[in-house]
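Hi V.,

Quick status before I head out on leave. The structure for the redesign project is tokenized and pasted below; the design run finished overnight.
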């Protein structure tokens, strides 16, 4: 129970169907006032729904397993996706643990996704029916045992229906705006956040160069840039430049024209497959970021825990640190972390 309309409506729907429902809220890192407001909200929602609320302080583990990697990866020249990591190592792990302690057979979240269980083929994860809200990209690393006992009541619903029904039922959070930010940033710019954690020396000046090595400008820290970034480069040019590569070893930012950022090949490491079944070389569709439109390509196994995806058409701004997620139609096959071709497993 995050305090938002999706988790609240999930609880409402389950209770309406006759389930005995318990709410679980995580106490997360961040400003004390922000957490106090969230806690007050989940108390109001739980009281309104008439369900017991369990508060769990996950701050030490969340700091170690999510926030620390988030910070360090930026200084490694990557652009991390903490929501994918959180679902794998924190959210569903803690949900399962608490459910086990309370002898509760199922867990549920407000994600827009669908689970289909079949006796022979096991459990499968499918996209939510609302294409604008599908969240399977964030769930592709979940293991089958956890998915077997997971319910996604909103997977078959449209967001518009959720909003309208929450308003009709007068659920306390029905008018809350959609959260678009990373939870532990609480509105802060990620650059300021990671610099405050790294301390003195985080802002290290370096060169901005083009593909031939010509110096075009200067930056105040390679961690401040992401692949595809155009603004904030400070380069006077008749045509815009975009960040094409981040080189933390030399503290350099490589920029190029927009057409230079297209590539067909993507390498991903630490790959996980839903159901444990490893798909052999085959055609799939794949996403290279959450809002990326899935594109067709050929999936190849290239080593232990690694895959290569050869897209039919070049894709723009492939970003190391983000997830490559593979689909067979609406079914999620699995995915891994996008890396540079010469990057070793970390």
């Amino acid at each position: 129970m995050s305090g938002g309309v999706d988790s609240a409506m999930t609880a409402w729907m389950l209770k309406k169907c006759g389930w005995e429902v318990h709410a679980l809220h995580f106490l997360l890192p961040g400003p004390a006032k922000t957490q106090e407001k969230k806690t007050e909200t989940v108390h109001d929602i739980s009281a309104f729904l008439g369900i017991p609320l369990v508060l769990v302080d996950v701050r030490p583990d969340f700091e170690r397993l999510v926030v620390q990697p988030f910070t360090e990866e930026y200084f490694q020249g990557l652009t991390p996706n903490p929501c994918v990591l959180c679902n794998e190592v924190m959210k569903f792990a803690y949900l399962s643990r608490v459910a086990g302690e309370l002898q509760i057979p199922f867990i549920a979240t407000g994600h827009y996704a669908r689970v289909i269980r079949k006796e022979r083929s096991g459990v499968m994860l499918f996209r939510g029916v609302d294409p604008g809200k599908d969240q399977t990209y964030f769930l592709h690393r979940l293991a089958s045992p956890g998915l077997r006992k997971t319910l996604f009541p909103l997977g078959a619903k449209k967001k518009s229906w959720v909003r309208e029904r929450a308003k009709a039922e007068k659920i306390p959070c029905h008018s809350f705006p959609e959260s678009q930010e990373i939870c532990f940033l609480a509105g802060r710019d990620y650059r300021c956040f990671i610099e405050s954690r790294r301390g003195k020396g985080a802002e290290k000046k370096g060169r901005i160069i083009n593909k031939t090595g010509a110096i075009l400008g200067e930056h105040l820290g390679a961690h401040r840039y992401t692949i595809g970034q155009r603004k904030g480069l400070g380069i006077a040019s008749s045509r815009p430049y975009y960040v094409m590569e981040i080189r933390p070893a030399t503290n350099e930012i490589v920029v190029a024209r927009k057409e230079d950022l297209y590539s067909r090949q993507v390498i991903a490491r630490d790959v996980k497959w839903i159901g444990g079944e490893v798909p052999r070389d085959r055609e799939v569709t794949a996403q290279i970021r959450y809002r990326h439109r899935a594109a067709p390509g050929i999936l190849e196994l290239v080593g232990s825990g690694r895959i290569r995806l050869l897209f039919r058409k070049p894709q723009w701004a492939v970003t190391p640190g983000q997830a490559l997620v593979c689909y067979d139609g609406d079914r999620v096959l699995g995915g891994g972390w996008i890396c540079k071709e010469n990057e070793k497993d970390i």
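Above is the designed sequence. The CA atoms of residues 122 and 325 lie 20 Å apart.

G. will cover questions while I'm gone.

Best,
W.
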